[in-house]
Input
Amino acid sequence: MARAAEVKRGERFDGFFRIREIQERQNRFGKPYLDLQLEDRTGCLPAKVWDIPDTVMGPVERGDFVKVRAAGEDYQGTLQLRVERIRRVGDADREAGFREADCVQSTAYDVEMMWEEFRRIAQGCHPLAAGLLLSILDEYAGRFRSWPASQRIHHSYLGGLLEHTLSVTKTCIYLASKYEVSRDLLVAGAILHDVGKLDELSPVAGTHYTPEGRLLGHLVLGRDIVRDHARRLGNLPPEFLLHLEHLILSHQGLPEWGTVKVPMTPEALLLHYADDIDAKFNVLASALAQDRGEEDFTSNNNVMRRHFFKLRPLLPSADPPAGPEGPVGEGSPPADGHF
Output
């Protein structure tokens, strides 16, 4: 079975995926077709079903695990799949070795190691700040270790929220050592800045927004979580809580990005840029890793509104050259038999 990262243009294959997105659209002649995003643990690929009645074998919807027969093709410099057959995974597929974990993108880092480091950082804060942080982390430990950070823009995979939040926190630790700011406030804001996404997003059957997420958003939801725990503990100075709430409500930075308030304190400004650089670098890294084109530049990235240059400015290695690599196998096309 082929993996998303292994698919080549012109290659016909069978594979297992999860439907991340699915929409019915119409072509210019008014004929319906399906526009999909198919993912497995190695990546996500756009796909089209041009002939729905002859291609879709039974009902399929977002979040379904499916078996697909498709061919890789080029569309405006981007690899996409032309689906020939698609159906839900059945018991026979599971008996033959299908695993759901192989069809869901997850963080590449060790979740338990990240979580231990995350808690150590929280414990290292002032005792009053640490008490608030650990109260929240303990209540949301299960979700915090597995939640995505977004639906599709950055760190949009299982464990992505923990990966992103830990990265932002470590950047803020460095910034707190460089500038004259409150380390405890900045680190607490970093740890909690996206905690509202635990209520804003649901990764069940593919990541989607909850009603609370659509109506309120993660900034307000996160502020509410922090305020609720601070009220339960009853020992956090009001001035510190006010600053911490401002960090959460302002970390998006700009009104057009969904912020409630623009950053108006030194710590809020630093948190915004630490969050922004980590999100944007993840977008860049994902674009470089997933681009399958043969050009020196990636296809246009809709989030960053630019092409990324794929060639790296590497210096010659100081080590002895390695031996020649063996040929890379092209794999065998799928049989035309049972699907």
Remarks:
- The chain has twelve helices and seven strands.
- The longest strand covers residues 12-26.
- The chain has two domains: 4-103, 111-286.
- Confidence is low (pLDDT under 50) at residues 326-331.
